[in-house]
Write a structure and sequence with these properties.
The longest helix is centred in the N-terminal third of the chain and has 39 residues. The protein has a 6-stranded mixed beta sheet, with helices on one face. Strands 3-4 form a two-stranded antiparallel ribbon. It is built from 3 helices and 8 strands; from the N terminus they run ααββαββββββ. The protein is of the alpha+beta class. The termini are far apart.
Length: about 140
C-alpha cells in the first residue's frame, strides 16, 4: 500500500516538475536563438524573440513595437555579424509571474571586434509571455 502511494505521488509530482521547468527551458531556447541571430548578423532572427507589441526601455525613452525595435538595431547588423561585437548572455534569475508570464534577469556582454577593445556588459530584465507562436519578449529593460 505504501509503495503504491509513493508511485502515485511520484506520477502526480512529475507533471508539476515538468510544467515548472518547461517555460524556463523555452525562454532559454528563445534567448539562445536570438543571441545566435545577433552573432550571425541576422536581424530578423535576433528580433524573432520579441512580441509584435513589445516595449524596449532605453536611457532615451521607450521604443514600442517589434518593428521599431528592429529599426533601432538595424544599423549595427552586417552580413555575417554585428558591428557592435559578439553577444553573449548569462541567465541570472528566473521568476514565474503567472501561467503565461516569465521574468528573466540576465547579464549581456558585447565583445567588440579587434584586439585590445574592452567588452561592454550590463543587465537586462525581460518579461516573456506565452503566445501561440511561443514565448515572446513583451518588455525589455536593458542597461
Amino acid at each position: 500500500m505504501i509503495r503504491s502511494s509513493l508511485m502515485i505521488a511520484a506520477l502526480v509530482a512529475a507533471p508539476v516538475a515538468a510544467q515548472t521547468t518547461a517555460p524556463q527551458a523555452a525562454v532559454q531556447a528563445a534567448m539562445a536563438a536570438s543571441t545566435a541571430g545577433w552573432n550571425a548578423g541576422d536581424l530578423d532572427r535576433f528580433v524573432a524573440a520579441y512580441a509584435n507589441d513589445a516595449m524596449y526601455v532605453t536611457s532615451k525613452g521607450v521604443v514600442r513595437g517589434k518593428a521599431a525595435i528592429a529599426e533601432r538595431y538595424r544599423p549595427s547588423f552586417t552580413a555575417g555579424g554585428n558591428s557592435r561585437g559578439v553577444l553573449s548572455m548569462q541567465m541570472l534569475a528566473f521568476r514565474r509571474l503567472s501561467d503565461v508570464h516569465q521574468l528573466l534577469v540576465a547579464r549581456w556582454t558585447l565583445t567588440p571586434p579587434g584586439a585590445g577593445t574592452k567588452p561592454e556588459t550590463g543587465l537586462t530584465t525581460l518579461v516573456f509571455e506565452r503566445q501561440p507562436a511561443g514565448w515572446k519578449i513583451i518588455s525589455d529593460h536593458s542597461s
